[in-house]
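As described in the Methods, two query proteins were run sequentially through the folding procedure within a single session, without resetting any intermediate state between them. The first query and its resulting structure tokens are shown here.
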Amino acid sequence: MNHPKDSHLNTIALAETALTQISTHGQPADPKSFELWYRFATGKSGLLSAAINSRLERSGTLTRKVTLIISNRSTTPTATWSAIACCGS
């Protein structure tokens, strides 16, 4: 069983990784960028990781436009509703 403090520390580490990626790639630290890089940091979406890694291997950088396209393509209504159901009310 996970201790609440372990979960807290794990999410802090993921958030720090997301912020590092944002800084490294010159992205704005707005909620949409943070969400994208946080999901990338979790490693739970192979498709998201593949899209970002592929783009970085090809061009060495990510533009804001490209990150928005990747973000929009990797966000599904099901995932959004699952997050709401999990954390809502």
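Immediately afterward, the second query was submitted; its sequence and tokens are:
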Amino acid sequence: MEQYDNVINECSKLIQSIHKQKNIHILKNDDEMLGKYKQLEFLVYVRRAVANTNINKFFEALEDYSKAQEIKPEDLEIKENMKKLKMKL
């Protein structure tokens, strides 16, 4: 369980850092880097959602999947994972 807590903490730190970097690139009108940070942000939200799911923090996992879905609404795997989580709530 400690390993999942570590993953969640590291992902939370990364998300904060990514948000700062995205804001910088928004101000610079740097769409290429902004796209790369959005992709990274998506992956980190998914990773944190998986870790939360593994320690039965389903509400938190659902929140993270929702954030990931905002970034990539076309991702079918995210939709399926959210559906499974909603059944556990």
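Residues 2-27 form the longest helix (26 residues). We note this only descriptively and draw no conclusion about the first query from it.
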